[in-house]
Write a structure and sequence with these properties.
Layout (H helix, E strand, L loop, with lengths): L1 E6 L1 H7 L3 E5 L6 H11 L11 E4 L2 E3 L10 E5 L6
Parallel strand pairs: 1-5
Antiparallel strand pairs: 1-2, 3-4, 3-5
Amino acid sequence: MNVKVKFFAILRERVGASEITKEIKEGSTVADLWDALKKDYPKLAPVNMRLLYAVNRNYVNGEYALKERDEVVFVPPVSGG
């Protein structure tokens, strides 16, 4: 199945794109997707920050089961100044 993945800030810089489509196994969770993305984009592997996850504009936890055509957003911490 395919999901749309959006990246912001440091994640976008490390992936080199703001949005991709990723094919994943049926029954995959958000955490499974993140693990797969770290394999596809090795620059994500050292990201050791607490991310927020949103699916279809609703915040979810890493165990959320994804469905075909979901839109997943990985939100890094925001800093200001």
